[in-house]
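Translate structure to sequence.
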């Protein structure tokens, strides 16, 4: 049911005739509100070899441009796979956004084999993310791929 409600809300955003930028901002708002554990939510778009932060909700971050291969975000693109990090303090390549962050999930936005960007979420709680988050966020990512 939660999936259906989320899909409906996304469809409403996509049908709103907003600009691409507005749709991406509305989608980040929707994602941020999905669970109280989501303390920071944002969308990065892939431009060449760099992830460029499109918009976010949460504490300010200095990581507005991340080269592919750097950090958890860059690793997702390099490896072509979503990332769930239960304890960010245990990752050497983690790029800290907020000192409070304990766990992170990155879900790629793809069109076929092409990576268009990603949804990135941080939580102040350790192990805040599991397969269910990945599944719901993939549902969002797949829809966003149609407008990027
Ligand atoms: N933690 C990410 C950087 C993005 S900030 O969390 C917003 C990383 O390691 O790539």
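Result:
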């Amino acid at each position: 049911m939660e999936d259906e409600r989320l899909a409906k809300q996304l469809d409403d955003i996509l049908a709103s005739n907003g600009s691409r930028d507005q749709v991406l901002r509305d989608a980040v708002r929707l994602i941020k509100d999905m669970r109280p554990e989501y303390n920071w939510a944002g969308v990065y778009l892939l431009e060449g070899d760099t992830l460029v932060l499109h918009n976010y909700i949460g504490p300010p971050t200095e990581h507005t441009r991340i080269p592919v291969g750097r950090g958890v975000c860059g690793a997702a693109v390099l490896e072509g796979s979503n990332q769930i990090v239960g304890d960010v303090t245990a990752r050497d390549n983690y790029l800290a956004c907020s000192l409070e962050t304990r766990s992170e999930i990155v879900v790629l936005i793809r069109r076929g084999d092409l990576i268009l960007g990603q949804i990135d979420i941080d939580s102040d709680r350790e192990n805040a993310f599991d397969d269910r988050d990945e599944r719901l966020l993939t549902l969002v990512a797949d829809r966003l791929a149609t407008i990027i």
